Amino acid sequence: MAKDPVCGMNVDEKKAAATSEYNGKIYYFCSKHCKMEFDSDPKKYVK
């Protein structure tokens, strides 16, 4: 399981609603909304 960096929800990588790549790492999202939030400002969500 991966953690959605926007909302913190656990996401099954095989069933993720969306993914994004940032700095060579793939992030998994529970919804398209969380992906859009992440894509607008990835630095805000990546520690």
UniProtKB/TrEMBL annotation:
Pfam families: YHS. Gene3D superfamilies: Ribonucleotide Reductase, subunit A. Residues 4-42 form the TRASH domain. InterPro entries: Ferritin-like_SF, RNR-like, TRASH_dom, YHS_dom. SMART domains: TRASH. One of its GO terms (molecular function) is oxidoreductase activity. This is YHS domain-containing protein. It comes from Calorimonas adulescens.
